[in-house]
Design brief:
2 strands; 5 helices; mainly alpha
Length: about 90
């Protein structure tokens, strides 16, 4: 089973399942979402707030993680001094 990120709808559904009086087992939720049970456990842990799953917390953490992961590609854009140095060097050559 190839890994795919949880969608917003899946996170909302996961939150709904967790709020039920008798929530389904993780392996059953994994089948519903077509994910491995370890992915569901990981998602539940990511969105945990006060001992309960919160889809908005999970979404926020995911967004922060993606921004941090992609920031390494913006090394020049985030550093104006470095950007000016590179432009100056390129104009000379």
């Amino acid at each position: 089973m190839a890994y795919t990120h949880f969608s917003t709808e899946q996170r909302n559904s996961l939150g709904y399942f967790e709020q039920l009086a008798h929530p389904p087992k993780v392996k059953d939720m994994a089948k519903v979402f077509h994910k491995h049970r370890s992915n569901v456990y990981r998602e539940l842990h990511k969105g945990e707030k006060n001992g309960r799953y919160n889809s908005s917390v999970a979404k926020k953490k995911t967004k922060e993680k993606r921004l941090k992961a992609n920031s390494r590609f913006n090394k020049i854009l985030n550093n104006t001094k470095l950007e000016k140095y590179i432009k100056k060097y390129l104009k000379k050559h």
